[in-house]
């Protein structure tokens, strides 16, 4: 089992890839701690740049190249004239398999505890309702009176939404103890809190009996693990025959994938708590802070739609239904409705499937 690789794919958008490589080279030349602030500054601004640039109807590739070359020029100027040699060099951060889960589980812990109730309870519920209904599905019918495993529940915000939709029991499972503690503390705020049961457990070896749940919900989790295939095998094992899986992972994500992979590599040596603190000092709210840290710090394993469907069928899932609609900010929504250049920007975008256990 190997660690997920985060390296830009040179086969996509060759000129943009070359610009990304120039930026990585400049970032790599800032080898001591004095370069951390510049790497955070340029990477954050490149990420925020894409929000405006990708919202435009123009071809994003030329703008991508210009933005990265401007950031590269700043890093090179600093490296040539100011930074370097004043602090000890720091080797790029490496994570072995034994420490991988701890790194991922701890990445968002401090973000969750500052999450406001309207984002935690109402936004998660409303967005889930909109996404289901736009795909012709009734979330209350899907979850009502079911025993549901929220596999990789994090802070428990989607567990709470599922209980609010009428699930009989929601087992929220995660390897992040701080997130689980926070989720347990939230249960007393809502009348459906007694149907929420939070447990520590790895998705690579789920501590539940075979065929013990009606629904497995896994929302943006397994592409962060060391066992993508093993997670799907475990979901199949704990589901009852005829039970349903909701699975969200990222497909091959076009220019956005290149952006994220490049910025992760550029900031690989920057301590993640420092990056998070930097965002907090800038006044980034908890919802956006979570998203930025997820995009720029958490390892991803990107797989294509064809690869995912093959994996699901191999583990006994049938009746694969892809949810291709979403809220306006969802990339899959933009690709589906045909916003100009959306496929260039986002490729296959989010892969959200409902599948039945044979």
Percent of residues in helical segments?
40-55%
Per CATH, which architecture of the largest domain? 3-Layer(aba) Sandwich
Identify the overall geometry: globular
CATH topology of the largest domain: Rossmann fold
Give the ordered list of helices and strands. HHHHHHHEHEHEEHEHHHHEHHE
Give structural notes.
By secondary structure, the protein is α/β, with parallel strands linked by helices. The chain folds into two domains: about 15-90 and about 255-295, no CATH class; about 105-250 and about 300-355, Vaccinia Virus protein VP39 (Rossmann fold). About 50% of the residues lie in helices and about 15% in strands. The protein contains 16 helices and seven strands. It has a seven-stranded mixed sheet, sandwiched between helices. α10 links the parallel β4 and β5.
Key features of this structure:
single chain; 358 residues; alpha/beta; Rossmann fold; seven-stranded mixed β-sheet
Short précis:
By secondary structure, this protein is α/β, with parallel strands linked by helices. The chain contains 16 helices and seven strands.
């Amino acid at each position: 089992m190997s660690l997920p690789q985060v390296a830009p794919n040179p086969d996509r958008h060759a000129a943009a890839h070359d610009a990304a490589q120039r930026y990585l080279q400049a970032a790599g030349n800032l080898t001591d701690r004095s370069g951390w602030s510049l790497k955070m500054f340029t990477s954050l601004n490149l990420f925020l740049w894409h929000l405006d640039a990708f919202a435009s109807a123009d071809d994003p590739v030329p703008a991508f190249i210009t933005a990265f070359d401007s950031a590269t020029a700043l890093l090179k100027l600093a490296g040539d004239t100011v930074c370097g040699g004043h602090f000890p060099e720091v080797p790029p951060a490496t994570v072995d398999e034994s420490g991988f889960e701890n790194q991922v589980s701890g990445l968002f812990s401090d973000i969750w505890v500052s999450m406001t109730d309207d984002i935690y309870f109402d936004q998660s519920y409303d967005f889930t309702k909109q996404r289901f209904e736009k795909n012709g599905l009734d979330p209350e019918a899907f979850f009502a009176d079911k025993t549901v495993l929220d596999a990789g529940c994090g802070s428990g915000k989607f567990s709470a939404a599922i209980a609010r939709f009428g699930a009989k029991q929601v087992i929220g499972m995660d390897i992040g103890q701080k997130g689980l503690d926070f989720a347990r503390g939230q249960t007393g705020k809502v009348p459906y809190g007694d149907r929420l049961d939070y447990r520590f457990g790895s998705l690579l070896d789920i501590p539940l009996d075979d065929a013990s749940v009606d629904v497995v919900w896994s929302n943006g989790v397994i592409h962060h693990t060391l066992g993508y295939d093993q997670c799907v095998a475990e979901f199949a094992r704990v589901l009852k025959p005829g039970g349903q899986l909701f699975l969200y992972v990222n497909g091959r994500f076009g220019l956005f994938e290149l952006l994220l992979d490049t910025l992760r590599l550029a900031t690989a040596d920057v301590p993640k708590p420092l990056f998070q603190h930097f965002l907090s000092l800038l006044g980034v709210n908890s919802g956006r802070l979570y998203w930025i840290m997820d995009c720029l710090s958490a390892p991803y394993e990107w797989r294509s739609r064809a690869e995912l469907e093959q994996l699901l069928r191999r583990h006994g899932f049938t009746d694969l239904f892809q949810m291709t609609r979403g809220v306006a900010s969802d990339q899959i929504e933009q690709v589906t409705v045909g916003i100009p250049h959306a496929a260039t920007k986002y490729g296959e975008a989010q892969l959200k499937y409902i599948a039945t256990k044979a």
